[in-house]
């Protein structure tokens, strides 16, 4: 039982990747109405980790599955591990977020999940209807040293 007296479901582990293009835009996914968590909101490429899967390989697997992208693993940086409450499954889930610079454009992205996956300027990204996780992570990431090293 939690401190509030409510029973919560066990946490689910997620892995996500923020891809940053050469001008500092962020690759975001517009989720469709079929998404179980945060439908019709904008979020990071990523998803559930498989049982026993480590966060980085899982996040990279999700990025390839959703956007057809395979970054250089040597350029990937860990942004942080975040606790994100998802009301739909009544759980405080764990999300490992990574970031990587890539010299690509929207034309290089293959949207395999959601409505679209496109690069968005940071100022516009924060104004979008974001997923719970993206709303928590993006402002912190944009003020972080890893983002500063990935932008001109």
Q: Name the poorly predicted regions.
A: 1-5
Mean pLDDT: 91
**Alpha carbon gap, first and last residue:** 48 Å
Strand count, sense and barrel status of the largest sheet are: 4 strands, mixed
Order of helices and strands: EEEEHEEEHHH
Share of helical residues: 10-25%
- Work out the number of β strands: 7
Which structural class do the helices and strands define? alpha+beta
Strand content: 25-35%
List the topology elements.
Blueprint: E1 13-20, E2 26-30, E3 42-43, E4 45-48, H1 55-67, E5 77-86, E6 91-101, E7 116-120, H2 122-125, H3 132-142, H4 145-150
Parallel strand pairs: 1-6
Antiparallel strand pairs: 1-4, 2-3, 2-7, 5-6
Question: How would you characterize the overall build of this protein?
Answer:
The protein has 152 residues and is α+β, with helices and mostly antiparallel strands. Helices cover 22% and strands 30% of the residues. It contains four helices and seven strands, in the order E-E-E-E-H-E-E-E-H-H-H. It has helices at 55-67, 122-125, 132-142, 145-150, and strands at residues 13-20, 26-30, 42-43, 45-48, 77-86, 91-101, 116-120. The strands form two sheets. Strands 4-1-6-5 form a four-stranded mixed sheet, with helices on both faces. Strand 5 and strand 6 (91-101) form a beta hairpin. The chain is globular, with a radius of gyration of 15 Å.
